[in-house]
Amino acid sequence: MAFCFTVGTHDFRGPLQGYENVTAQCHRCGNWSAHCETEFPMFTICFVPLIPMAVKKYKLVACPICGYKQDLVYVTPPPRQGGERVEDGCDVIADGRYRARPDVQSMAHGGGGGGAGPPPPQQHGYGGPPQGPPPGQGGGPPQGGYYGGK
Questions:
Q1: Nearest Cα to Cα of residue 7 among 48, 32, 44
Q2: Do 27 and 65 form a contact (C-beta atoms < 8 A)?
Q3: What is the full DSSP assignment across the chain?
Q4: Percent of the chain whose pLDDT exceeds 90
Q5: Total-model pTM
Q6: Does residue 37 carry a pLDDT above 90?
Q7: Torsion over CA of 68, 72, 76 and 81, rounded to 10 degrees?
Q8: Dihedral pair phi/psi, residue 5, rounded to 5°
Q9: Following CA atoms 62, 68, 69, 70 in sequence, which dihedral angle do they give, to the nearest 10 degrees?
């Protein structure tokens, strides 16, 4: 008699409380679509979550376009070639750790103070966006039947 068991992991995700309406810029692809979420990994047997793989939930900034996830609270940047640490937009805290996303943390609970904010509106030059249909295309619906005749 043989039994087949499936084992694996599953990440339970949800919105991060206090950051529900925050949209930030992704540090990987540059899109303004990253959002804050919590993630709690569990070990599963036969698709049933049994053993938690973390003590507490991870607080992440996740980009749905490129899939990049960055810790919201702490990060230890990799060393540069000269030995000093990279401080790519991070605030120094203590013992070599940095505050990962001060721009996102300043927007918590609906506050907008100090954050970078959304991107500025695009300028179309010479007085705004063009009006009407593109050049070479008529303004009205097509006349006639399917093949252009009556």
A1: 44
A2: no
A3: ------EEEEEEEEEPTT-TT-EE--TTT--TTEEEEEEEEEEEETTEEEEESSSS-EEEEE-TTT--EEESSEE-PPB-TTSPBP-TT-EE-STT-EES-HHHHTTGGG--TT---SPPPPP-STTSSPPSSPTTS-SSPPPSSTTS--
A4: 15
A5: 0.56
A6: yes
A7: 50
A8: -115, 140
A9: -110
In the chain, the percentage of residues whose pLDDT exceeds 70 is 54
Report the DSSP pairing between strands 34-45 and 23-24: antiparallel
Q: Are 25 and 118 within 8 A, CB to CB?
A: no
Nearest residue to 104 via CA among 73, 58, 78 = 73
